[in-house]
Design goal:
By secondary structure, the protein is α/β, with parallel strands linked by helices. About 35% of the residues lie in helices and about 15% in strands. It has 3 domains: about 5-130 and about 285-305, 3-Layer(aba) Sandwich (Rossmann fold), CATH 3.40.50; about 130-285, Rossmann fold, CATH 3.40.50; about 320-355, no CATH class. A 5-stranded parallel beta sheet has the order 7-6-5-8-9. A 4-stranded parallel beta sheet has the order 2-1-3-4, with helices on both faces. Strand 11 (about 340-345) and strand 12 form a beta hairpin. The structure holds N-carbamoyl-L-aspartate (NCD).
């Protein structure tokens, strides 16, 4: 049995297979109407959501299954202090698969180590959001006709934007990919992406704070919202919130074949005047998210049927002698969780928390 916690849990072949399944669902939806009959998806959302939760639910319903769950932490026993581990054990009694969104980084990983059903990470703090990446991949494939040989601009909040982190991890494994990272200096990508992904694998990338300057070279522009809820200092958010606004004029600088993606919700960073531009793909991207979630639910349930045993995590290279300092890490609230670290760079002596990937 497998869960989806990081997009790296899926190989490139598996990503391509999910894209192919999603395209088949689009072409022949009737073939999938009963695939999940009598199966239940639980959606555990401890943070607000429109697209992710409802597209998961629509996906399960279109597969003939049912859904249960909650959409805010205050209506679950988390408000009474129940741990993620206990909640995961309980939900395993009621559902066949679960999707979890949580403000603490690493919470779905903890759930997957305690559940006896597959767990899907639907967004953990400012860390990862692998199913948004599935939506992004299908969108790039459908809009551009390929997922290789692309220059991808990521613009906005690259520090806290979890969709950006998962997308870079996924796209870095395709050939001919270059990234242009467009952000204010305060919101540059975090170390676990810069060093563990881009530098480690020699992926070409440049950094700039100018969207106008980057625009002409891009095949894909991925806009993001400045993540207000992740800022410790509200004044810092106020100062940075309008760093980038994509306007119809700026679209004039772009290639004719470019496409614009945004995980949504948008606040101010894409003018509604851009919506009618044929290159604006963000509403189609939201629909693609439903098809990819259908493909994912099918895959994980099939795997769980073939092999219902949860694989234990490999602890052979883990270290126990540190304490994670990230206030947003799940180890900060679940006191009895063992602190676990992995050395990610021997030469530089860098160790990262296995839950949130912050440097210890
Ligand atoms: C994103 C998220 O939750 O990280 N939304 C989504 O799932 N489509 C992006 C965001 O909230 O800015």
């Amino acid at each position: 049995m497998r869960s989806l916690i990081s997009i790296l849990d899926l190989s490139v072949e598996e990503l391509d297979q999910l894209i192919a399944t999603a395209k088949d669902i689009i072409a022949h939806p009737e073939n999938y109407w009963d695939k999940c009959a009598h199966k239940k998806l639980a959606t555990l959302f401890y943070e607000p959501s429109t697209r992710t939760r409802l597209s998961f639910e629509a996906a399960m319903l279109e597969l003939g299954g049912s859904v249960l769950g909650f959409s805010e932490a205050s209506s679950s026993s988390a408000s009474k202090g129940e741990s993620m581990a206990d909640t995961a054990k309980i939900l395993s009694c009621y559902a066949d698969i679960m999707a979890i969104r949580h403000p603490k980084e690493g919470a779905p990983f903890v759930a997957s180590n305690n559940a006896t059903i597959p767990v899907i990470n639907a967004g953990d703090g400012g860390h990862n959001h692998p199913t948004q990446t599935l939506a992004d991949l299908l969108t790039i494939s459908r809009e551009m006709g390929r997922v290789n040989d692309l220059t991808i601009g990521l613009c906005g909040d690259l520090k806290y934007g979890r969709t950006v982190h998962s997308l870079i991890e996924a796209m870095s494994r395709y050939t001919g990919i270059k990234f242009v990272l467009i952000s204010p200096k305060e919101l540059k990508i975090p170390g676990f992406i810069r060093y563990n992904v881009l530098e480690k694998h020699g992926i070409p990338y440049t950094e700039t704070d100018s969207l106008e300057e980057a625009m002409p070279q891009l095949d894909v522009l991925y806009m993001t919202r400045i993540q207000r809820e992740r800022f410790d200092d509200p004044y810092e958010y106020e100062r940075l919130k309008d760093s980038y606004v994509l306007t119809a004029e700026k679209m004039g600088l772009a290639k004719e074949q470019m496409c614009v993606l945004h995980p949504l919700p948008r606040v101010n960073e894409i003018s509604v005047k851009v919506d009618d531009d044929p290159r604006a793909a963000y509403f189609r991207q939201a629909l693609n998210g439903k098809y990819m979630r259908m493909a994912l639910i099918l895959k994980l349930l099939e795997e769980a049927k073939a092999n219902p045993i949860r694989e234990a995590i490999d602890t052979s290279d883990l270290e126990y002698d540190r304490v994670c300092q990230n206030p947003k890490c799940i180890t900060q609230t679940e006191q009895e969780l063992p602190q676990l670290f992995r050395c990610t760079d021997k030469a530089a002596d860098i160790h990262r928390c296995i839950y949130c990937e912050q440097r210890a």
